[in-house]
Write a structure and sequence with these properties.
By secondary structure, this protein is mostly helical. About 55% of the residues lie in helices and about 10% in strands. It has helices at about 1-10, 35, 55-65, 80-90, 100-105, 110-115, 125-140, 155-160, 170-175, 185-230, 240-250, 250-255, 280-310, 315-335, 350-370, 370-380, 385-415; strands at about 15-20, 40-50, 75, 100, 120-125, 145-150, 160-165, 180. The chain is elongated, with a radius of gyration of 32 Å.
Length: about 425
Amino acid sequence: SEIITQNNQLAAKGLRVLGFAYKPLYDLPASGSEEETEQQMIWLGLVDMQDAPRPEAQEAVSRCKTAGVRAVMITGDHQLTARSIATDLGIAQPGDPVLTGQELEKLSPAELEREVNQVAVYARVAPEHKLRIVQALQKQGHVVAMTGDGVNDAPALKQADIGIAMGITGTDVSKEASDMVLLDDNFATIVAAVEEGRVVYTNIRRFIKYILGSNIGEVITIAVSPLITAGSGVPLTPLQILWMNLVTDGLPALALAVEPGEPNVMRRPPYDPEESIFARGLGLYMVRIGIVLAIISIGLMAWAYNYTQGSPDPDRWKTMVFTTLCIAQMGHAIAIRSNTQLTVELNPLSNPYVLVSVGLTTLLQLLLIYVEPLRSFFGTHYLTLMDLSVCFGFSALMFVWIELEKLFVRWFMNRS
């Protein structure tokens, strides 16, 4: 009783406790007689050791909580040791239940499914228990990432949505069964990977928003142009359309794909992995922005067509429409860097690729207008300074519209 009390006192401090005993042997015991031999031992004492968590682990667990990711400790340690460490890390709160391997053995699959949402610490568990815990969490609709390093962890790593093997201490079997290998065996690296994954997914959606939103605007503009210009033809040639899709759309879109994460990337809950890429308003955004771009371009077209009639070069209205469509998308690329922050609130150097791509694309567009060989090849017309100023003025409306949308959303959220 005194030994058990001392053991519990040490374990409650988060220490790992080893018990030592001995027995004199005069003959080498036969193989397989361990249970008989290891009786009537002479007690020596307890030794405790501290296997402290890494300094960054507590911060990593805290970031998990704010990101809506639940950390669960599964360990072979004593339940008091596990509870103490889990409490220090913030995985569990004082008084939270700890489920031991012996208790888990007695639970049916249905009972375990009811427990997994309340239990954050499992102690004295065997590797086969990990598989049951993963399956129970998945039955509750959770996406589960499981870490492991031993041969016996392979079934749980294979069953998990994301199996993570330890790169330093992990066995070859566990690495083969996993989806990813953690090279530094550091939990904080998993959290960093979650953040990077969110940034990548957001940038994929941003890329699609920019490309398809712009293309919808172009299609509407080209479709409506015969109605505006009294049958004078479409403003863009096939070569100019190809130019917009490859250069005007392509360069800024690639730059947007490396946009750094927004400040709230780890302060929001996870998104449903089954949701469509067009969910949460992305589809509506593309249609809305496409219509806005088309309205701007059609408005410019109506003005430019009437303005250029009777001039020495009456077809230059087509180049004005072409230029407006291209430059307006540059404003779109700059404004779309953030869904919530205004452009003036962003660090312009946090993604210099956007600035370079916008500047380069704008320069190339001007070369198509003012360099004779390129003008002849692309079928553009020379624009006066007045014409170009009008194009830039109409194009700026795209940027202004998106920034006003952000202000409206911010006002609406504050009001709510």
